[in-house]
Amino acid sequence: MNPTTVLWIGGAILLILVAIGVVISISSKRSAEEERLGEYVDLDETPYEAKSSRSSVMTDWLTKSVEKTSFGDRMAKELAQADIKFKPGEYITFMVISGIVCAIFLYAVSGPSILFGLGGAVLGSMLPRIYVKSQQKKRLIKFGDQLGDMLNLMVNGIRAGYSTLQAMEAVSKELPPPICDEFHRVVQEVQLGVPMESALDNLLRRIPSDDLDLVITAINVQREVGGNLAEILDTISHTIRERVRLKGEIRVLTAQMSYSGKLLAVLPVGLFVVLYFLNRTYITTLFTPESNAPLPCGYIATGSALLLITIGYFVMTKMTQIEV
Length: 324
What we know:
Distance between the termini: 57 Å
Largest sheet: none
Number of helices: 14
Low-confidence stretches: 26-32, 41-55
Order of helices and strands: HHHHHHHHHHHHHH
Structural class: mainly alpha
Oligomer: single chain
Shape: elongated
Number of strands: 0
Strand content: under 5%
Radius of gyration: 25 Å
């Protein structure tokens, strides 16, 4: 291995260590919402600890630059839905660091090859977003599975004489995350003077669930026109439990097709990368131009293969998405 490659690999390792340090320092912080709420209500950390958590100047500037744009608002919404304590500026910084690390690593181990370096930059910048989307999906499924228990607890509390806010506070204390965390935020916002409707709308923004939308609509209508909220929520609870049961059965029946689609999409790309490192001459033949051809046939073949893989993946994914 020549000294240049060693320097590239050493730089990549250094950037990876820096990225790990940034992740650890950021993940230990609370969100700005919780820090402000912690000044008025009882949270787990002391005011000194809350004030001592500061972001870097660069990420603060980047956050202020993008927070008023639609792109920054969309990123903040995605982070809130995944319950990741990142600001938009910190999220963008981490995407850039991840892209640089992957680009340097693939550039160093591939020859070096500029094509692999660019591919690594694109892949690395996409990895944080893929992780955020995965956390969103897991958290939404877990929240939906807990919604029936939450409604039962609220119904029993209201029938015992609790107000709606007291029933929500009981939910925030008795049930496990993530539903307890979300209703704890709702209770905190209402205690600070935020209207109940606005606090519930904020909850729906963080948890985009049709079942939760139904529950919030029932609560808002009952607050406007009156009625027996316990009976309404009891009926909704039965409906939601049946939907959760059907969704679980559908996930089980479609799991094989879902994982087959992911495997079939990743397998050709992975095989191409493995063959490139095992027998580079064999793969580079695809991209060697012939004397009478303006463009190597490998570019056309690779582009067609990627297009067909993408179409096949989205078709199989669409087939597994069954609305209940």
